[in-house]
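Q: Convert this sequence to structure tokens.
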Amino acid sequence: MIFAFDGGWEVEKFDEWPEHKALNRFPYHAKGCDFVAHDGRHLWLVEVKDYTRDARTAPPDLPQEVGVKAFHTLATIHAVARWGLDPHREFCTRALACTELSLRLSVELPDKGRKLMGVAKPLADLKDELARVTRPLGCHRPVVTAALLTSHTHARGVPWKAHRDPATRHRHHDR
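A:
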């Protein structure tokens, strides 16, 4: 997937931060969302999953897995804001000053050639369960979308455009 954010957003590839990688090992085994973005008011945690490659299937506990990633990401952001080093410390301090929190799960599910008809119900179920799981974090309306619904356009309620990377499109099956 390729994400293009509107102007005014700070975006970090969170799961590549050394601070996250240090917590991802023994004894913590912390998980993290793929991207963290904010505009000073709104903080977005973004997780990207693709189950259209290599005959993979979405795990039944995907909403819980993403909820744990959101929790660990927020915990890491807090720790880095308080005790981390620049430049991530400054980013995290600004992120924690945001008054709104949102989570987006961008998930690619096999559609068996039926496009929206093949994924609409699973996406709705994922969104409902993810909302239940993330409510204690203060994230009441997570966004769950698939690239076939958002290609080259803004998905409802998100400040970016997303589309498939044409260079890797041939690796995906069931479309």
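Residues 149-153 have pLDDT under 50 and may be disordered.
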